[in-house]
Queue: 3 jobs
Job 1
Amino acid sequence: MMTFEKLLHGHDTVACAYYLHARDQRAKGISFERLVAEKEALRLAKVREPKVVRLGDMEFLLQPYGTASGYPLIITNREYRIEMGEFMSPSFFVTFTSEALWREGAQALHEKFIAWAASVGFTPYRDEAISRVDFSFDYHLSAVDFDEDSVVSLSNKDSQHRENGKIQTFTYGKSDIVLRLYDKVAEIEQQSNKIWFFPLWGRDSDVWRIEWQVRKPGLKRFGIYTFADLHMLQGDLLRYLAHQHDTLRQRSGDSNRSRWPLHPLWADLQARVGEFNQQGVYRVVEDAALLKEQFMRLAISVQGYMKRAAAIRGVQQKKTEPITLDETLRCVADQVAKIHDPLTWRHDVEKRMNEIRLGK
């Protein structure tokens, strides 16, 4: 029979956008122009090693590359990976390192970053916006007595990874909420090299991690935008994740997996989730403003398609003047009616409604 021992739980990744501006351009402590020139010099010299730079009260490594999302500069140290650009909005996108999160905690690192920004003459002009949080729960397991079917999940996607025929990772979900159960020791040895976990655990073998990666849409549905929100509301989010979104079960003869008994490991996890702050909120169900914004963006896209449809119909009919929106709507409606299948419509709309509710 499998036995387990709880080891650690906390945040393993936090990513956040910061909206900062210089209090006084003359006293600004970051010369973006100089840093970009130094980065380009590294790149042109084909230097792979980053350059040490001191900005304000911290030292960083200036990387010889930017980001695919458009940030021209990346600076890193033990606490932060900072993507930044003088004309970007947000001006700073920050990922807190795993080691720093386990050492200092998310709130302390947030306050430390704000203090650093002040040291280079920058101050917030609006609240920060958290875009990703990874919640991790580490256990020592005497054996693994579950498989991919043992997890009952609202996610439609799942996968598993094997190494030499031995299961190392179970993954559920691919978008805003992702659950992973994996051999953390194997991951350290093969990928991350985070051997500093071993003294924290007090062991260096047979440690599995249960981890949820939650991105911005999932955080927003629980009202989590800032670090103050995270502190107050993360318990409600975790309660939903561990009780409703995903559960680990013990196999039984019942054909319905959701009726299988709860695995003792998961019962312990739910107890640990209960230690986080909770406000009694199940979840913030589909913020009205967010849905309104999504619908507006959809309308803009549809308008673009309607213009294309009007152009096609105008050419077909050899019109000298563009046809009107009303005429285009009638033409498109007639075409859609020919391919409409009520059963498929109902199934696909219900599927998309569930995806919206669950953050897919």
Job 2
Amino acid sequence: MNRLVELLVVTLVLPCSVATRLGAEEPALKRVQVIVLAGPNGRLDHLALDRKHARLFISNMANSSLDIVDLKSGKPVKQIPGQRGIQGIAYAEDLDRIFAGVGEAGVCNVFDGASYQLLKSLPLADADNVRYEPRHRRIYVSHAPKGLAVIDAEGLAVFTDMALPAAPESFQLETHRPRLYLNTPRPSQVVVVDTEKNQVLKTYPVKLAHDNYPMALDEASHRIMIGCRRQPKLVVVDAESGKEVAGVPIPGDTDDVFYDAARKRVYASCGAGFLAVIRQVDPDHYEVVSRLPTVKLARTSLFDPVEGRLYLIVPRHEGSKGPQVWVYEAGPRT
């Protein structure tokens, strides 16, 4: 009996960290806010963040508008109409400019971040994903049929348009060396680009799954994390050798993946109606720790590593007054 009492006492005074491991674990992602947008039924696409002014920029495809949300108030403050087929968005904080790939119009539109006035429309067929590289003040835009345009973000002119081996999808830039990695779903491969020479260096075939759309980077471990829709998986590739080191099943129809370096997690937003959270055991081993139910076609998102918040775009659905942004807070660091 005394031994039983001792065990009970030890259990009651266990440290929080031990108690967490024994079952009181906090969720990896916890929904903390819902922001209601305006617009009809239909698809929404990518997002960009202005952390300095606490703004979220949203490609509201269903409404043909670029939507701006004030994150302090949690409310939309502006819709820029006439953006038919708006897809990728990038924000250049140092220039206070918004760059939007508007596919149906075949342009990359540039807006002043203060007035929201259109500064320039740069013709690019089916402009899609957009990224900003602040060191050289360059904007990269993937576009049809097989192009990657490089724009002078200050002078607002296309100074290079690289030919790619296939139609592009998501891509990511390294921050410490001149490397860009880009997905082409057909054929399923990763294209490696030297951003100083503006040329393709090599390609890595993706074999563990197919239709590779979204991408994230773990630069410290030299790992490329790829969301695939056919045989839905997160495929992890060694950025130096091109070797596929892991393949983890995830829900279908993913369109965004993000690596949370502080917590060693990958978040995948999937149009099948789930957010998948994958734990990085080490650079070559991964496991799904949770599948959070969302809404069908909620497949685009944005993760802010500074605040530890994930913003999920949710199309208008039964019972909602409009499209929404679901805001999630990431759980404790491991």
Job 3
Amino acid sequence: MVSKLFHEGGPHSIRKIGRDEYAMSVSLPTDDDGRRAHECPDESCSPGYFKVMPGTGITGGQESIFCPYCRKEESPDKFFTKEQIRFAKDIAMREAHDGIERMLKETLGLGTSGRKKIGGGLFSVEMSLKPSQKPMVRRPFEEEVRRDVICPHCGLDQSVYGLATWCSDCGKDIFLTHVEAELSVVKSMLADIKRRREALGNRVAAKDLENCLEDTVSIFEAVLKALVRRFMSNKGSSREDIDKFFKKIGNAFQNIKKSEDVFHASLNVVLFDTLQKNDIDVFERIFEKRHPITHNLGVIDKKYIEKARTAEREGKEVLVSAQEVEQSVTFSLQTFQSLHKRMF
């Protein structure tokens, strides 16, 4: 009797489920931090790739999971990455390679040596089987995703690109949790400036403060874009219309006054309902310091003087204080929390 293509059992729990069908279990490897990759089954979802820490979040009886970017809900087996599927196929091919070799040996009557001699005397034929090299099994390629957040609702430890909106396990809105995590990084950098000044000098500390301000402005812009994109999508705007809108406003969300105007004119939403007029003016002046930092090596120019309405002298270096960055972080978070509550 010829052997089966696969030996049942073994490390992959192989079992025959039909005439020519087998099932096997493949354990998917995790990355160096113990996280396992997932990919949204919706091909149009971007970026679609995320990771979770096994053993956190909903750990039993979970019938579906969610994409943290588009909230598509499917069974867990729909979220395998293309690399994980390739990895499983590699293992199946390696197991099949051994089975095909066994079947050929038995069909041809070859012994354990893989050789058989037919006939004798003057005429004889010798058959031999030289197995090909086993197919290589390569680990799944894992992308670097370095924004980690723990869901405050179910406890899932997950990693995403950018500012994702939904928890992969419970499907609840955790956008503000992502935002707070990003701003907390700025706060941590601020808290370390005194030590870096003592260890590396005033110039390094000044650059650290400038970087903190630039990061805060970048977070402000990214969060407003994410909120507006979701708001417009909920209102029925197409992806093309949303892309056109952002192309039209350009980098307006890097500027406090322009951001306020866009929200009022295009969305009919008050941007700073929790801030007093004086707070908004302070917020604007702090953000304007980003211009000479980003575009002029921190040196004050006429454009900055006009926009910031400041009496600072052209040619001097713009000064950023830790208190100013802390204020901008506080104002940003207050604005995000209020907007999120009112818009969604």
